[in-house]
Amino acid sequence: MSRILIVDDAEFLRMRISKMLIAEGYEVIEAENGALAVEKYKAEKPDAVLMDITMPEMDGLTALKEIKSFDAKAKVVMLTALGQESVVLEAIKSGARDFVVKPFERERVLNAITKLLA
What we know:
Number of helices: 5
Structural class: alpha/beta
CATH topology: Rossmann fold
Strand content: 15-25%
Distance between the termini: 13 Å
Number of domains: 1
CATH class: Alpha Beta
Order of helices and strands: EHEHEHEHEH
Largest sheet: 5 strands, parallel
Radius of gyration: 12 Å
Number of strands: 5
């Protein structure tokens, strides 16, 4: 089954998404900031990434660009809060395949992952 890297500084959100994806049969890897996401991406080579935009140490946009710099085929979906439209546009231009607005619906996350891995 596919391995998904979940990146968010909010532990409760990582746990919520992890439980959801594990229940669907995915293997899950977690990181709490962009810097760790880049490290874990290099080490674990996940099939897809679900990454928050706003995080300490390294934000999601910077992490996205760094991951894309060494893996142009990386499949990344950004998690965003309402009101971050300009950042979302930059993320899409930088290679993100999709975005999910928080608070999110379970089906929206699963559809984004399914589409990403298709």
